[in-house]
Design brief:
Helix content is about 65%, strand content about 5%. With about 100 residues, it is mainly α. Strand 1 and strand 2 form a beta hairpin. The longest helix is centred in the N-terminal third of the chain and has 28 residues. The protein is globular and about 50 Å long.
Length: about 100
């Protein structure tokens, strides 16, 4: 995964309050999406007991996760930002037609 944005390390760009709030919002969305996917997979596929046990510990609201667990969702969410930016640019372009 690319960890640069505009030539800067993404982690260095998320320290403003506004950016931190946005990262938290994206991370929560990422976590909820993962929970839906992993629960569906667990119902349909045969998972190892170790994986299922590990996942079940994470099947809870984002605000109940440890900071370490939240960091994983934050990291995944941050990498979605360039796609969101591109989506916004396309929407602006389409709106001007």
């Amino acid at each position: 995964m690319v960890n640069k944005f505009g030539g800067k390390d993404i982690q260095d760009l998320i320290y403003s309050r506004e950016m931190s709030e946005l990262v938290e919002e994206i991370a929560e969305i990422e976590h909820n999406q993962w929970m839906r996917w992993s629960k569906e997979l667990a119902e349909k596929e045969l998972l190892t007991n170790a994986r299922l046990k590990r996942w079940k510990k994470l099947w809870k609201p984002y605000n109940e996760l440890t900071e370490e667990q939240k960091d994983q969702d934050r990291a995944e969410g941050i990498y979605l930002v360039p796609a969101f930016n591109k989506f916004y640019e396309i929407m602006e372009k389409e709106a001007k037609k």
